[in-house]
Amino acid sequence: MEIQRYSTTAIIIHWLMAIMIIAMICMGVYMADLPKGSEERTWFFTLHKSIGLTLALLAIIRLIWKLISTSPPLPDIVSATHQKMATVTHHLLYLMLFIQPVSGYISSSFTKYSTKFWGIPLPRWADKNPEMNELFTQIHEISAIFLVILLVMHIAGVVYHMKRKETELFKRMWFG
Ligand code: HEM
Ligand code: HEM
């Protein structure tokens, strides 16, 4: 049976973002506990913000691509319930691809530091506000936890189908 793959563009963006997001989750957890005012903390925060904003741009490109192209339908071997679960997980993952960087950017905007995008300072649109910073930092943390839960479900779904020797499901999101 012919495997219906995602387009090469969708595959490249999927894996590029997957690697970057997993690295960002590890980096975020690591850097949050670094001593305040340390050079290492500043270095990681600056890098985290630049990669995070790059991910926001990639999410916009990805969403546009998703809307203008057609995703290959899942084969019939996947039960209707699993098809629904996959669709809901994918939609929620898309939502988190936006909530995660936007909450990070808003929280950073309420600090005294200007947010830089690979060295370019972005225009300031908010003054320092510790309460708002705290609120959006918490949203950023909670949404990271939700993202990790979705990711575990997503990967578990893929592994489940591979275990049942339905390896073509993985190949749908792989080059070939
Ligand atoms: C942060 C990491 C990840 C995110 C945000 C993510 C997101 C998504 C989304 C939204 C889709 C639906 C296709 C689309 O519309 O683009 C998808 C499909 C897929 N992902 Fe991921 N993914 C991630 C990591 C992974 C990993 C680590 C694996 C490997 C186990 C994986 C394997 C797949 C496969 C095989 C599909 C195709 C499913 C199908 O047959 O329809 N993904 N992913
Ligand atoms: C998809 C993109 C992103 C992911 C996956 C991500 C993930 C994370 C994670 C897991 C943490 C650690 C939370 C904790 O345990 O305290 C974190 C912290 C942080 N992130 Fe992000 N982030 C992203 C984008 C951004 C962006 C775009 C910005 C700002 C422009 C940002 C700013 C921050 C800041 C300032 C912290 C530290 C919060 C604190 O003070 O503890 N993040 N991020």
**In terms of structural class, how would the helical and strand content be classed?**
mainly alpha
The CATH class: Mainly Alpha
Sheet with most strands: 2 strands, antiparallel
Low-pLDDT stretches: none
Structural domain count: 1
Distance between the termini: 15 Å
Bound ions, cofactors and other small molecules, one mention each: protoporphyrin IX containing FE
Helix content: 55-70%
Task: Give the overall pLDDT as a whole number.
Answer: 95
Quick overview of this protein structure:
The protein is mainly alpha-helical and 176 residues long.
Structural overview:
With 176 residues, the protein is mainly α. It has one domain (8-171): Fumarate Reductase Cytochrome B subunit (Up-down Bundle). 70% of the residues lie in helices and 2% in strands. It is elongated. The model has no long low-confidence stretch (mean pLDDT 95). One protoporphyrin IX containing FE is lined by residues 10, 14, 17-18, 21-22, 66, 71, 74, 90, 93-94, 151, 154-155, 158, 169-170, 172-173.
